[in-house]
Design brief:
Strand order of the largest sheet: 1-3-4-5-2
Radius of gyration: 15 Å
Largest sheet: 5 strands, mixed
Helix content: 25-40%
Order of helices and strands: EHEEEHEH
Number of helices: 3
Strand content: 25-35%
Distance between the termini: 26 Å
Number of strands: 5
Length: 108
């Protein structure tokens, strides 16, 4: 299963809320992924060609950012000069890491 990584604050957000919207430079071919310290997740592309904070406005409440503008500034800082196509994904936890740990503990 492919891994997907987030900034530490966003990893905590995903772990607590069990879902997050994220913008990436890549168009992922697989829908399942593993997020370290969170668990198995399902990702679904919800928008291609993200170009401004206006494109983020409907989803920022589940992004881990306080506003669409703050989120857009972070996207620009991370992706500066690395390509023009940006894709928005909805990532939902399907099996949290703690469930894996509980299964392991039950076997011991």
């Amino acid at each position: 299963m492919a891994e997907m990584h987030f900034l530490p604050d966003l990893t905590r957000f995903l772990r607590d809320r069990e879902e997050i919207y994220t913008v990436r430079r890549f168009r992922y071919q697989t829908h399942l992924c593993y997020v370290p310290n969170v668990g198995a997740c399902e990702r679904k592309m919800v928008r291609a060609n993200v170009q401004s904070s206006e494109d983020l406005a409907d989803h920022y409440l589940l992004s881990g950012f306080k506003s669409a503008e703050e989120w857009w500034k972070k996207i620009q800082a991370i992706n500066k000069g690395k390509g023009k196509s940006l894709f928005m994904y909805h990532v939902r936890v399907t099996r949290p890491t703690w469930q894996d740990q509980a299964r392991f503990n039950d076997r011991c």
